[in-house]
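Extended Data, record Secretion system C-terminal sorting domain-containing protein
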Amino acid sequence: MKKRLLLILPMLLFTLVSNAQDHVWDFGNDTTNWPVNPGYNSSSPATTTIDGLTLISGGSAIGAISAASNTAFSDGFTNVNMMTVQVATGAPLPTKRGLSFPVDGPCTVKLWVYTSSTNRRASISDGTTELAFYLSASPSPYKTILTAYYTGGPGTIYVYTNNTMNFAKLSVQTGLGIDDIKADALPVFYTNDNQVFVSNVKSNTTVSIYSITGALVKTIKTSNDTSFELRTGLWIAKVKSEEGEKTVKLVVK
């Protein structure tokens, strides 16, 4: 019995430690932590931390909570209220109008976000690299569940926008959720001169190409392996298929 208990105890400790970073910030329904308010505006200190989430104000208001007028997200989540976030300063390491939280290691971050107009961008970064972004585009409604995968060690995750947008919920979960995103089944990109090749296409797939400033420059819809041309430069490719979605950087020489 003692041996069995000794074996079980380390397993329990490992589970507790490995899941320590798991958290959900429900801006839309948790009125205890996120009551209706005009936002946080502080220059000294320049941050406010609520339930483990840091709001970076830098002397500018951030995080106003107000009543929402919004339909359900694709996963069925609905929100009564919303957090409004304005354009950040200093991305991908925002010094004004951004959110941040610490992580222990590899994790999946999700943001339930929506807005009222096109060409508005919500981003998730590790302070150095933009891990994922959502750029609102027609048709409406302009909303999504933005997902980012962080593969590094202990660090800090940042969430910010390039214009006024609304956040309904934010979550972090230990691990990369490989079973959910079916990474091995997603299309693969490679370049040769100014040709971009897309392989491993297994279903109806949409490839969206963005400039590094976030402008949509090309959209390709296909159900087979394909290729297309791009000018020399650095591009962002976002692929969405029945197997999942991912965002990659393309270097065209």
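Summary. Residues 98 and 225 are 39 Å apart (CA to CA).
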